[in-house]
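I hope you will forgive my troubling you with a question about protein structure. I set the record out below, with my sincere thanks for your time.
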Amino acid sequence: MLKLAPMDSWAIIKTGGKQYKVSEGSIVAVDKLSESDKDLVNFDQVLALVDGERFNWGKPYVAGARVKAKILENYKDKKIRVVKFKSKSRYLRTRGHRQQMTKILIEKIEN
């Protein structure tokens, strides 16, 4: 049995093909959203929802659950280097990539 601390509330949302555990007031960096800065966005793909002692698993999503968030900024993540190398053949290719990200503030988790 899963024991939770009282007043512990969080949700697992799906956006951009990834899953994020969020709680009210938390700031999360997700893949870039199409909305612009300072907009409000609703996530309706809620996979799990915990509200105090209640625990809801979605099949695949929790019916009627929604997470409201505010977009803080769009930015580029740190650069990663992708290297292709083959030994004994003098082959070396280096490429860089910076992922577009969006920082969001979780305002409300609704059921």
